[in-house]
Automatic annotation (TrEMBL), chain A:
Its main location: endoplasmic reticulum. Keywords: Disulfide bond, Endoplasmic reticulum, Glycoprotein, Glycosyltransferase, Golgi apparatus, Membrane, Metal-binding, Signal-anchor, Transferase, Transmembrane, Transmembrane helix. GO terms for cellular component: membrane. The keyword Endoplasmic reticulum applies. Transmembrane segments: none annotated. This is Peptide O-xylosyltransferase. GO terms for biological process: chondroitin sulfate proteoglycan biosynthetic process; heparan sulfate proteoglycan biosynthetic process. It comes from Shimia abyssi. It is found in: Endoplasmic reticulum membrane; Golgi apparatus membrane.
Automatic annotation (TrEMBL), chain B:
Pfam families: Glyco_tranf_2_4 (PF13704). The keyword Transferase applies. Keywords: Transferase. This is Glycosyl transferase family 2. It comes from the Bacteria. GO terms for molecular function: transferase activity. It comes from Shimia abyssi. The lineage of its organism: Bacteria, Pseudomonadati, Pseudomonadota, Alphaproteobacteria, Rhodobacterales. The keyword Transferase applies.
Length: 565, 322
């Protein structure tokens, strides 16, 4: 017994000829259907090229358009001819002109001989398949589809809408349950002839002519009526991408195809010379009986679809520029923003990088320059510290920095002076961990050697700016992990918040902080705030700093570094 | 309207070698304008022949270094000559629009300058025709390839370029992650800036830095025109080469080997001719910096290895091509 190959061809005739000769060389007869849209001249030339081969026959031609009945009609005609002309055929294998046998033909024949009653046809009820194009699954069978999806998309869509609105429902012929699956099947003579010679075939054909994409459902449904043993899978390796078109194989897939152990693959690029030469030749080595194993190829194509539909989180580039809210993550990964910490603690940045191992920058959005870690002028990805270039597109500056330093946690400082900082973007980004000690901007002023009237003016300005920033961080749109303390609150028990921030950054196992950063000397700060108040500028963002308590503290010697045992 | 311009400008072109009758229906066509690029042409032609280009169509803007004669001798090149103003023809766009209207209809057309080398996913194993066949099958009509400025390490005059040499042997460094982009509401394209030119030549006024977005590969139709160099096209839909819903479309890069030792003389000459975009502001900036023989290379420059590296860095994407 042998296998008969049906080939649906509409282009790349040289390759079709090559493949047809390969099948017949190893004893498999071939029936070819050529699309009726192919010119008579081309058809004749193609038919003539195979005229010397008596095991190749050409069947009646139909117009084949994707999604329409023609493909089923073509398969029917080809199958009828095959069953008539080659009585020793037991299994009939439907393939296309761009299919390629990957394993020796003998292995396929042996495989099918060992399963003489099995029909290989992917066939699932509509409820169970995820791969439908255009959102039509069960409706494929209950609506009418007189228009072409490719050429008359507008009419196609409107007609669907109208039928939905009018609640038109076609009656599914009695006795059948719609099934769908890959169009590339391999059926036994018994099953196939039962379908083709069914007394009710006329009814079924009339019905399926107006079903959408009948080549994925005609045989898949009817096989369920007659087959005694359906293996619901296709022997043809054929992967579809998100638009429902098949992935194409190229020369660089050669090894992958070899290792897949699939019998036939679709679709091969017609100029993939190495693939064609590699598979269309005499088999070497022993005949294998292994099962097809396309898992690796599946993974590659699944990844490709994911890249096309989801993309890489945090990447903005020439072919990925998501609209607001469609980014699947506004930045590549988590990062930490510290507000007021480097003002309150004298060695905060060194301490932080020592404790967490993260890359710690100064004020990235400082008006003078982007203060990259270590004072670098250019950083990962050749990002420059120029404040003008940075402010030209500060969001891109930030997303670039986070993207360029993938795999290394980034921390940076922000303060009210950094007017260019994209605070709203930070607030909305779930990847941002933002910790704020409000009012700490007053400390540099407190320590500065400036005239008090200037200090007063600057304090008023910074307070207003910080208030705006806090407004963004507290807004209901904020998705960042935001923590805000007033300075007064924070200095009461600094270790606890520091510990939880560090734990959240979490490089490795959580551990107790053994060393705290050195807090700046606050003696006299209460009085300083009081002076501002006396001048009519009321600093409120730092919380309550009573004048006397700090005055009392002042009598003690300057504070030693905070050590927790 | 722009087609009308192209139509008028056709008179400015005089055919020197017209081999367009050799163009076969499925040929990939390459269009380019050039002026005194003799030293670059041998490698340029070799590179693109190897990648599957079927026919080259050149506009020569009054070269006097023998490059016109060289091109006219090539068996797969058609070349037109013009003495007219590069600037007035919209930097060559009008001329090429005319030639694309006349010969490009129904073909995949690649428009590149002689210092641009097209890189796309799998370009080490698949020719451009594999890409265009896939684009056809996916009903995609235009393909994005951002300009990626390449530069040598050390002063650019240090390593002289020899004819026939792969320019990327010298200019093999690039900036990996300092590009910014905004959407242009008029044409629907992305406006991309950044890279070494922005970093070194325009640190004080980044808005003047040249645009890097390009759509050089298009399944041409006579209704199409390039509106401004190859940065944007009409109709607008052709500029929609980027995904807006989080996914990635497939895209490539044009490795821009501008910064070879030939650049310093070129910059001076171009400045004298004053034939470039925005009153040659770009060349003014170059000339100013070039006097101190600048170094584009920095510690964080990335060395070019292959397209996979560029795709991992996020400069281009395989999209759903696998």
């Amino acid at each position: 017994m042998t296998v008969g190959i049906l080939m649906l061809v509409h282009t790349a005739f040289d390759r079709a000829e090559q493949v047809a000769r390969h099948w017949t060389k190893y004893g498999c007869p071939v029936v070819i259907h050529v699309d009726a849209d192919v010119s008579a001249k081309t058809y004749k030339a193609f038919a003539a090229s195979l005229a010397d081969n008596e095991n190749v026959k050409f069947c009646k031609r139909h117009k084949c358009e994707w999604g329409a009945w023609g493909l089923v009609a073509a398969s029917q005609s080809a199958a009828e001819l095959m069953l008539d002309a080659f009585p020793n055929v037991r299994h009939v294998y439907l393939s296309s002109g761009s299919c390629l046998p990957l394993r020796p033909v003998k292995e396929l024949v042996d495989y099918l001989d060992a399963r003489p009653r099995t029909d290989f046809i992917e066939s699932a009820t509509t409820a169970d398949v995820p791969w439908t194009v255009g959102g039509l699954d069960h409706e494929r069978f209950t609506l009418h589809f007189p228009f072409s999806w490719r050429r008359q998309r507008y009419l196609f869509d409107r007609w669907v809408d109208i039928q939905r609105a009018l609640r038109i429902k076609r009656k599914i012929p009695h006795g059948i349950v719609p099934h769908m699956g890959s169009q590339w099947w391999c059926l036994t003579r018994q099953t196939l002839s039962a379908i083709l010679q069914d007394p009710e075939r006329e009814t079924f054909d009339t019905y399926f002519k107006r079903v959408w994409i009948p080549d994925e459902s005609y045989f898949q449904t009817l096989a369920r009526l007659y087959s005694t043993n359906i293996e619901s899978r296709s022997l043809t390796l054929s992967k579809f991408d998100f638009q429902g078109k098949p992935h194409i194989f190229y020369d660089d897939h050669l090894q992958l195809l070899r290792r897949s152990d699939c019998f036939v693959a679709r679709k091969i690029w017609h100029k993939a010379h190495r693939v064609y030469d590699g598979f269309l030749r005499d088999p070497e080595g022993a005949i294998k009986m292994s099962e097809p194993n396309p898992a690796k190829i599946d993974r590659i194509f699944a990844k490709a679809v994911e890249r096309r539909t989801k993309g890489r989180t945090g990447l903005y580039m020439q072919s990925r520029f998501p609209n607001d809210g469609w980014e699947n993550g506004m930045t590549f990964g988590r990062y930490s923003v510290f507000h007021g910490f480097s003002e309150l603690f004298e060695d905060f940045e060194t301490w932080l990088s020592k404790t967490t191992g993260a890359q710690v920058h100064g004020h990235l959005f400082a008006p003078e320059r982007a203060e990259f870690s270590g004072g670098q002028k250019v950083i990962n990805g050749a990002l420059s510290d120029s404040p003008i270039a940075r402010d030209y597109n500060s969001i891109a500056f930030l997303t670039n920095l986070i993207w360029n330093t993938r795999g290394e946690r980034q921390c940076f400082q922000v303060g009210p002076r950094d007017e260019g900082a994209p605070v709203w973007f930070l607030a909305k980004d779930p990847n941002a961990q933002i910790s704020v000690i409000s009012g700490a901007w007053a400390l540099p002023l407190f320590k500065s050697n400036r005239n008090f009237s200037d200090i007063r003016k600057e304090a008023a300005r910074l307070q207003k700016l910080e208030n705006d920033q806090l407004w963004a961080l507290r807004s209901p749109y904020a998705k960042a992990r935001v923590r805000i303390w007033t300075m007064a609150e924070f200095i009461e028990a600094p270790m606890e918040p520091l510990q939880s921030i560090i734990d959240e950054i979490g490089n490795g196992a959580p551990r107790r902080l053994s060393e705290a950063p050195r807090m700046t000397d606050l003696s006299g700060f209460g009085q300083f705030l009081q002076n501002l108040k006396n001048q009519g500028m009321h600093p409120y963002l730092m919380g309550d700093f009573p004048v006397d308590t700090l005055e009392n503290e002042q009598k003690k010697p300057p504070r030693k570094p905070y050590l927790v045992q | 309207m722009r087609l009308g311009r192209a139509f008028r400008k056709r008179r400015e072109l005089r055919p020197i070698a017209d081999r367009t009758d050799q163009i076969k229906p499925h040929d990939l066509l390459l269009y380019s304008t050039q002026r005194n690029e003799q030293v670059r042409l041998p490698y340029f032609l070799e590179y693109y022949r190897d990648k599957g280009v079927g026919h080259f169509l050149f506009v020569d803007n009054d070269s006097d270094d023998g490059s016109l004669e060289y091109l006219a001798e090539q068996p797969d090149v058609s070349v037109w000559h013009t003495r007219h103003s590069y600037k007035k023809s919209k930097f060559g766009v009008d001329w090429l629009n005319w030639l694309q209207f006349r010969y490009g209809h129904g073909h995949w057309c690649l428009v590149v300058d002689p210092d641009e080398f097209f890189i796309y996913p799998f370009c080490d194993t698949r020719p451009i025709t594999a890409l265009t066949d896939w684009l056809d099958a996916s009903s995609i009509k235009s393909f994005s390839a951002m300009l990626l400025d390449m530069y040598p390490r050390g002063p650019i005059t240090e390593q002289p370029y020899r004819a026939g040499q792969d320019p990327m042997e010298i200019a093999c460094w690039f900036d990996a992650g300092n590009y910014t982009m905004t959407k242009n509401p008029d044409f629907g394209n992305l406006w991309i800036q950044g890279g070494p030119r922005s970093r070194v030549f325009f640190p004080e006024n980044p808005e003047l830095a040249p645009a890097l977005n390009k759509v050089p590969l298009v399944k041409w139709n006579r209704r199409y025109v390039y509106a401004s160099s190859t940065h944007m096209l009409l109709p607008r839909g052709l500029n929609q080469v980027f995904d807006e819903w989080g996914g990635e479309k497939a895209s490539g890069l044009l490795l821009h080997a501008k910064f070879l030792d030939t650049f310093t003389t070129k910059a001076e000459e171009e400045l004298k001719r004053n034939q470039h975009y925005a009153a040659s502001v770009e060349y003014l900036a170059y000339a100013e910096r070039l006097r101190d023989n600048p170094e584009l290379w920095c510690k964080w420059s990335e060395k070019y290895i292959n397209w996979r590296q560029l795709e991992i860095l996020g400069l281009m994407s395989k999209g759903n091509w696998a």
